[in-house]
Amino acid sequence: MGQVDAVKTPATPGEVAGAMLRAYARVTGTGPTTETGYLMPLAQSAFETGHWKSMFNWNTGNVTSSGAGDWVYEYAGSLRFQAYASLDDGATSHVAFLKHCGALGAMDAGDVHGFVEALRACKYIGSDEASYQALEASLPSILAKYRGTLPLPPPAAAGSMLGALAKGAAIVGGAGLLAWVIREGPKRAWARARRLV
């Protein structure tokens, strides 16, 4: 499709968690067997994009491109990166790339070293050994930071009951949401959650 402008596309941890969970299911045909199945690519994405404050064109993994037939944007000189129409598209491409690299088993096992080794075998970061070491050193703390993040539904589902409850959970926290629904009662909690969306 050609080159497009580099556009910042920031996202929240919950939005990225939801996109990674849906991407895993799209790529494999089933959900991850453990929470780290979608948190490992989320942590890698956070590392790559400054916790999604410096994510461009929904490229969750800074996946590069040859530019042939793809939407690409150039950044930092001659590097060409994939550009995507949505967060879900970017996450799906990212997880598909990780599957191509043989990283899904390590993701499900929570094996940081195995995950980075799979990326190294694919030359994900090229041959810069210091970058692989930095990624491997950073992933455990990033995983710990985002463990328990509630995956949010895609924006199109924001008006649904699931979207409203997910937004409420993002505001009051996962455990807080359950207490809130119990305290308010399901009908009242649903009515209040809809106003949050």
Detailed description of the structure:
- The chain is mainly alpha-helical and 197 residues long.
- It has 2 domains: 145 residues, Lysozyme; 42 residues, no CATH class.
- 57% of the residues lie in helices and 6% in strands.
- The protein has a 3-stranded mixed β-sheet with strand order 1-2-3, with no helix packed on it.
- A hairpin with a 3-residue loop joins strand 2 and strand 3.
- Helix 1 crosses helix 3.
- The longest helix has 18 residues.
- The C terminus is likely disordered.
Give the SSE map.
Layout: E1 2-3, H1 13-28, H2 36-49, E2 71-75, E3 79-82, H3 87-100, H4 104-109, H5 112-121, H6 129-146, H7 161-172, H8 174-184, H9 186-196
Parallel strand pairs: 1-2
Antiparallel strand pairs: 2-3
What radius of gyration results from the CA coordinates? 18 Å
H/E order of the elements? EHHEEHHHHHHH
Identify the strand order in the major beta sheet. Answer: 1-2-3
Task: Kindly state the number of beta strands.
Answer: 3
How many separate helices? 9
CATH class of the largest domain: Mainly Alpha
Main sheet: strands, sense, barrel: 3 strands, mixed
What gross morphology would you assign? globular
CATH topology of the largest domain: Lysozyme
Task: Indicate the structural class.
Answer: mainly alpha
**Overall pLDDT confidence:** 80
Q: Residue share in helices?
A: 55-70%
